[in-house]
Amino acid sequence: MNGGPPSPPMLGGVAHSRHRGLSVGRCADISDSPQHGGAGGAVPTLSHFAPRIAALPPGERLTKADLLIPDFLLHEAGRLAIYYAPFDYVNPAARVVLVGIAPGFRQMEIALRGARDLLGAGEELTVVAERVKYLASFAGPIRRFLVQMLDGIGLAQALGIATCADLYGARHDLLHTTAAVRHPVFVGGKDWNGHTPPARRNPLLVRYVREDMRAELAAVPDALVLTLGRCAEDAVQLLLDEGVLELARCLIGLPHPSGANGRRYVQYAQVRDDLTRRVAAWFTDQTPATG
């Protein structure tokens, strides 16, 4: 059992360890090579981009003109472009992993603005990486419905917390978040919707799933994996089909909480009872025997 909640992400430090070059509990080092890396290359990290982030213009909001720039561009293929945002932090002790589509521009802006401010205040890179991950992941209105769904399937009760809102605060130690593509993806300058193009049919996106997402899930081996929406389901199913992820730890069926998903309430109602039973069963099986 956990000996009690740690400091919230706005206060705490982080542990240091590594997994396949990924930042596990920290922001991993990267060479000073001008190649930004990403899927099929060196994993892009905050340490590489920190000087450019610190130089972002001041203000309460950053624009696409500020952020969708060559300095942050990781890959480009036709109308599809993938940009860096500081979602590098990995929590290897997490008991739950949430898998989404990819950060949208709103989450990208919150993460980069937060990193800019923390770097300007002199915070260590490890602290910056952790704080902005929980600040920006599923940020905005989608987080409210996400918390409602997770509480509704009994996840808070199973974790021994009052509400899953605490996963983004005092009990962030229990949570890791990732996505089919963990960096922001745009198609024609607009947020990728997870379907056009489909992740499993696009070679670049498939590389992100097979390399980055696979490595993140392997780095959090004891956590229950919850997919959010069809794109996340397809990404997880790809790893299941290839035998590199265990079906027993995957909970598939929750809708994506975005307001763009007009059927999210209906979809949630259809799976709630089944997922509630499966959450309870998973955490019952994970409880060490006593006596």
Total domain units: 1
Helix content: 25-40%
State the name of the first-level CATH class. Answer: Alpha Beta
Strand content: 5-15%
* Largest sheet strand order: 3-4-7-8
Q: Can you name the CATH architecture?
A: 3-Layer(aba) Sandwich
Main sheet makeup: 4 strands, antiparallel
N- to C-terminal distance:
15 Å
Sequence stretches where pLDDT stays below 50 over 5 or more residues: 1-24, 26-43
**Based on CA inertia axes, which overall geometry fits?**
globular
**Number of strand segments:** 10
**Overall pLDDT score:** 85
Number of helices: 9
Given the helix and strand composition, which structural class is it? alpha/beta
CATH topology type: Uracil-DNA Glycosylase, subunit E
Order of helices and strands: EEHHEEEHHHHEEEHEHEH
Describe the structure.
The protein has 291 residues and is an alpha/beta fold. It has one domain: Uracil-DNA Glycosylase, subunit E, CATH 3.40.470. 37% of the residues lie in helices and 14% in strands. It has helices at 46-54, 64-67, 105-120, 125-136, 141-152, 155-159, 203-218, 230-241, 264-286; strands at residues 17-19, 22-24, 73-77, 80-83, 96-100, 175-179, 185-187, 190-191, 224-228, 250-254. The chain has a 4-stranded antiparallel sheet, with no helix packed on it. It has a 4-stranded parallel sheet with strand order 6-5-9-10, sandwiched between helices. The chain has a two-stranded antiparallel ribbon with strand order 1-2. Helix 3 (105-120) runs antiparallel to helix 4 (125-136) and helix 7 packs across helix 8. It is globular and about 50 Å long. It starts with 16 loop residues before the first strand and ends in a 5-residue tail after the last helix.
